Amino acid sequence: MRKRLFxxxxxxxxxAEVLILLxxxxxxxxxxxxxxxxxxxxxxxKLPEKSSPPQKPPSLExxxxxxxxxxxxxxxxxxPQRLPLTATGLADEWAEVHSETKASDEPDFVVMNKxxxxxxxxxxxxxxxxxxxxxxxxxxxxxxxxxKELWAVPDDFxxxxxxxxxxxxxxxxxxxxxxxxxxxxxxxxxxxxxxxFENSDGSSFRQQRLLVQRNGKWRVKPESVSxxx
Length: 229
Prior knowledge:
Layout: H1 2-42, H2 60-78, H3 87-97, E1 110-111, H4 123-135, H5 144-150, E2 164-167, E3 177-187, E4 190-198, E5 204-214, E6 217-220, E7 224-227
Antiparallel strand pairs: 1-3, 2-7, 3-4, 4-5, 5-6
């Protein structure tokens, strides 16, 4: 009797130890899974990189545009650099622009309806003649020969077989007049005129024009001149 009871107790103890071992194993497996999950989250797997498709060679149009940009940059680099204004110069320009005095109040203000063709012996005269011709085309049409006297264009501009197009760069509107604020020599035969224009409502705006001298006469320099083929 005692021997049977002992065997039963021994079986119960052994079963309890087996259950404890199974529980520990399950706990160890869960801890291992958690650690692997955390490791995967902290070090995400890198996806295989997609191979980029082969690049197509640039088109002829793109090559042409790149060439034009390079040529324009070279032209810009050739332009004379303007010296920086001193503090006094900046103050003078600020006072001049923000002055209450209108351009039409100055004695050298040129009224548009009183323009005259005064020749082109000086930059100021050439610019007034230019304004007169451009604003009176209905009465005096612009011929290629006359355009050649106003604009700095190639010598064969008035050739019937040569076809040129001019870009003015700045338009003309209903201004009542203008005043030459500054005349600045950039080169021996190139002048920059700073002009204040006044509108009929009293408002004003500022523009700059380049004039060049050829054969003893001053002419307005266009934004660009291109020959049509």
